[in-house]
Structures are given as structure tokens and as C-alpha cells.
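F.,

This is the one I mentioned.
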């Protein structure tokens, strides 16, 4: 079956990792800071802190901006559960935002209304975690303007969007946000096996993040609380975690990031092929704008409006049987059994639920060859006629 996504490992990647295996530091060596500099220079941002995965990045990102019990955090209903769980880890409450059916990101008009309503009932969010679904950036300038009016922090969950651009700046530059989080899981744009990163322009936040990543332990003499310390002294000054990335992973990341632009360029070629193929069909292809250059982590396509979830599932299953590994991203988070305990019933967010019954993800990955793309297009069209004809 042609998978919906697939990582790529070169001989150079393997060499980079084996260099670390032969060195004296498997973790806490020089590759982690080197990978962090590569990320910050790519994104044009002051600081990058890498972690064990994006979920841990989201967790300490929330802690670093002071999310704690009693706070309210909003995120998109259409995302991976980790974008919501990070708020719950901090004891905060979470609520969900409806998406637009144009780019499947947070709907700005609905967000405005919800903020106005929240102001009246004195229950404004402390932070909004925006999600650049499929690698297409949200309307960050508008969200930034709203954050100034209503006073919330912005975390970008850019797990899909390293290599993407918003108004010609790299996602991760944090021009319109407090923090940006990336994921390096193998299914994402570049990989470290497991891995995540947080970028920020705030030195204060970056410092908190590095402490939280490593037990809250301080090693710089000038910062010690206890002055009678010897040369091996270290101090735990806050409650942190072990969320570190190893040097093995950082070495892979350092090698992979060199290919980032080429990977995204390949993804655009494949996206352009699909857009052309699906032009006169009933499939709605994703937005494609030059100033908001997507990383095309996913190629999300919609079935016609009015399609039922059952019909969509039938379509997906038949395509999979024919060898085309369609996938789906994502079920509205509040419909998961765990989240339904928080009181949101089916019917809560109209567009998110319509998206759920219409959307599917078409295979896209850098090493995909033309014959595979042609097969995908062919199977999708014939299966559509079979199910909906
Ligand atoms: C993959 C993903 C995450 C979690 O990333 P991990 O590195 O697996 O922890 C979080 N949010 C979104 C939107 C994702 O796609």
C-alpha cells in the first residue's frame, strides 16, 4: 500500500548518527546545541530548545508562560490530542475553537465572537494554541492583533509546519507569537526518531525552558542560591522533567535539516500534481498561496458537502483496499471519550464536524514517484464514482 507519509534516511544521516555512537557523549554533548543553532538560524529566531518530542515541548511551553491550575487554554478542535493535553498537564482547563472550511485552521470570525463572549463572562483564555494544520499557517497577524486586545499568549503548534512560511517569514520566527513548537516524529517533515523543538525570541522564556527540560537544575555558579557550594555543586531551583533530546537524535536532526527546503519543494511538486489532477472533480483540494507557503505535511482533500461519515469511511476503506493508504487527520478532539467527560457534546462545533465527515489525507512524501502519484489519482477518481456515482 502507498502510505500517506514516509520518512527518508540518507547515508549522510546514518554517518551523522554513527559519529555520535563513536564519540564519548551519547547525550548532553555538542550535537544538541548545534541542532538548536541550526533551527534558530533557519527560522530567524533568537532561541531554540530541543526536547524529547513535541508533546513535551508543548508541556514545558505552557509551563514557561505560566499556565497553571484554574487557567483556561483554547486550541483548535481539529488537531492531534497533544495540543490540548499539554494544558491539562498544567492543571488548566481547555476549550476548543471551530475551524474554517477554507484552510481547516481556526476560523478567525468565530474566534472573534467567542473572545467577545468570553470577555463578557470574564472567562478569557490565558493562551491560545494555534495549529498550522497540514503545514498551512494560520492567519497569524490577525490572531496577534486579537491577542493584544484580549491579552492572551500565543503558542504555535507547528508540528506540521517546519519549512513553511507565513507572509514570507519562516514559521517558527515567532514574529506573531510567544512560542512555536515543532515535531520530529518520523511522519513529520524532518525527523529525529522522536523529537521536538520550541522557538522563542524571549531570553527569559528560553532560560525557563532549558531548566524545565532538565529537572529544574541550575549549574551556573553565578546563579546559585547557596553560596558555600564546592566546584561540583548543582542546585534544583524549580520542578522540572527529563525531557532532553539525545545527541544521537540531534545528529540525525542536524543532517535532516539540511534537506528541509528540498523536502518541502518536493512536497509542493506532488501537491501541484494532485491539484491539477483533481481540478474538474468533486474533490476540494487545499489552499495554495505563495505568501503563506505550506510545508504540505498533509494533502487534505474534502469530499462534497453533505457527505456522511459512513460514506467517507466506505470511500477510505475501498481506496485502502486498492492500495492507496488514505488517512484522516483528525477527529474533533472533544469527541474523544476522554474529552467528552468535559461536557462538549456532538454538535458543539459545526464546521469541525462537517470537516470530520468530509476530509481525508492523500499520500504525500518526498520520495513518492510519478507512477505512485498517478495510481493515487486514478484510484481516488474511480473509487469516488463507485461510492458516490
Ligand atoms: C505530531 C503532533 C504532535 C505531537 O508530536 P510528538 O513529537 O509525537 O509528541 C502535536 N501536535 C500536532 C498537531 C501533531 O501533529
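My design for it:
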Amino acid at each position: 500500500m502507498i502510505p500517506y507519509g514516509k520518512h527518508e534516511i540518507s547515508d549522510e544521516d546514518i554517518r551523522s548518527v554513527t559519529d555520535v555512537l563513536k564519540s564519548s557523549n551519547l547525550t548532553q554533548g555538542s550535537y544538541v546545541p548545534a541542532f538548536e543553532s541550526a533551527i534558530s538560524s533557519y527560522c530567524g529566531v533568537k532561541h531554540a530548545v530541543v526536547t524529547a518530542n513535541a508533546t513535551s515541548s508543548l508541556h514545558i511551553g505552557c509551563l514557561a508562560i505560566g499556565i497553571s491550575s484554574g487557567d483556561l487554554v483554547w486550541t483548535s478542535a481539529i488537531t492531534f490530542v497533544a495540543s490540548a493535553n499539554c494544558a491539562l498537564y498544567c492543571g488548566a482547563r481547555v476549550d476548543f475553537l471551530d475551524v474554517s472550511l477554507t484552510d481547516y485552521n481556526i476560523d478567525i470570525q468565530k474566534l472573534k465572537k467567542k473572545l467577545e463572549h468570553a470577555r463578557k463572562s470574564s472567562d478569557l483564555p490565558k493562551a491560545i494554541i494555534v495549529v498550522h494544520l497540514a503545514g498551512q499557517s494560520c492567519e497569524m497577524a490577525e490572531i496577534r492583533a486579537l491577542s493584544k486586545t484580549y491579552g492572551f499568549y500565543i503558542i504555535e503548534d507547528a508540528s506540521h509546519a517546519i519549512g513553511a512560511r507565513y507572509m514570507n517569514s519562516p514559521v517558527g520566527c515567532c514574529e506573531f507569537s510567544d512560542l512555536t513548537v515543532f515535531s520530529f516524529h518520523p511522519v513529520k517533515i524532518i525527523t529525529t526518531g522522536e523529537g521536538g523543538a520550541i522557538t522563542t525570541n524571549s531570553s527569559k522564556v528560553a532560560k525557563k525552558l532549558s531548566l524545565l527540560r532538565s529537572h529544574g537544575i541550575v549549574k551556573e555558579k553565578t546563579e546559585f542560591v547557596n553560596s558555600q557550594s564546592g566546584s561540583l555543586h548543582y542546585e534544583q531551583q524549580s520542578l522540572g522533567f527529563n525531557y532532553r533530546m539525545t545527541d544521537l537524535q540531534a545528529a540525525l536532526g542536524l543532517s535532516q535539516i539540511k534537506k528541509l527546503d528540498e523536502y518541502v519543494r518536493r512536497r509542493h511538486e506532488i501537491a501541484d500534481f494532485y491539484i491539477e489532477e483533481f481540478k474538474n472533480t468533486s474533490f476540494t483540494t487545499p489552499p495554495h498561496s505563495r505568501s503563506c507557503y505550506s510545508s504540505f505535511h498533509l494533502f487534505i482533500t474534502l469530499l462534497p458537502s453533505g457527505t456522511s461519515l459512513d460514506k467517507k469511511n466506505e470511500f477510505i476503506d475501498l481506496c485502502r483496499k486498492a492500495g492507496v493508504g488514505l488517512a484522516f487527520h483528525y477527529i474533533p478532539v472533544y469527541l474523544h471519550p476522554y474529552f467528552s467527560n468535559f461536557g462538549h457534546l456532538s454538535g458543539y462545533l459545526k464546521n469541525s464536524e462537517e470537516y470530520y465527515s468530509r476530509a481525508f489525507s492523500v499520500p504525500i512524501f518526498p520520495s513518492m514517484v510519478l507512477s505512485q502519484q498517478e495510481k493515487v489519482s486514478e484510484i481516488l477518481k474511480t473509487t469516488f464514482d463507485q461510492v458516490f456515482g
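The pocket of pyridoxal-5'-phosphate is lined by residues 53-55, 79-80, 82-83, 131, 157, 159-160, 183, 185, 196 (CB under 6 Å).

Talk soon.
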